[in-house]
Write a structure and sequence with these properties.
There is one protein chain. By secondary structure, this protein is mostly helical. The protein has two domains: 196 residues, Cation efflux protein transmembrane domain (Alpha-lytic protease prodomain-like), CATH 1.20.1510.10; 71 residues, Cation efflux protein, cytoplasmic domain (Alpha-Beta Plaits, 2-Layer Sandwich), CATH 3.30.70. The protein has eight helices and three strands; from the N terminus they run αααααααββαβ. The N and C termini lie far apart (94 Å).
Length: 295
Amino acid sequence: MPQKITDKQRVSFAGFCFGLMLVVQLIGAFSSHSLGLLADAFHTSADLVALALAGLALSWQKRPATKEYSFGLGRIESIVGGINGILLVVFVLFASWKSLERLIAPSVAIHGSSMFSAAALSLVLNAIALCVISPISKSNLAIRGADLHIKNDLFVGGGVLAGSIAIWATGWRFIDPMIAMIIAGTIGFHTFELLRDSFDNLMDRTPKHIDPEEVKQAIRSIPLVESIHHLHIWEGATGLHLEAHITLTENMRLSETLAVEKTIKQKIVATCGDTHIFIEFKPPPPLVQLASPST
């Protein structure tokens, strides 16, 4: 029976493909004088870093929790996702600057045939890496960041290949920097999403698919629940977490609250999905008796 390919093996193989891509693109960029191919090589180097960081995150995530890090090191995925986003921002700025420079003062001739050969081979390697990584792209932010890098580079490679054909056929040098600028803009848009998600995860933002007001209403609908406060919902290293303070309508013994707690947890799971739940019950506020006015 064949052994299942692990996530780390997938990331390692994708890294090998991108290592070959980087060599091909650098050789092609210097031989063809293509800015688009050079920008693609820069992006590929960022992809290599992203894959290395994703592999590191996979290793760290599986380390057991310690006394100091009681939740484990799963939050490393958010940090890695943020680093990937910053690398993409650097690439976008670099590609935009060099493209404008080439558009304003085109100074070198582009060899379309050399550019086409390097772009075509790079595209094949990129597609192989994408097929390997895509099945695990939803597992965590680190892998998602690497997957986004690979998809962006596939788009970049397609643009470079199309540009090489156009330059080869027409000799128009301005096509190369224009393609690079379009690609940079598209990558910038997707990079914003990655940085936003990484920031939200680090800041313990309530997941987008959960409405805290809906959760409160579901809990308030349960008999014996007076009110709910200090509600916090976040995506942690070990899954979805929820904590809340719940005030009951009457004083109850600890054993009597178990049935209420079970009902509340069922409501939360029905509303949010599988969740790590922590509930603290509060007794109702004491009734204040007004003193009778003296007669």
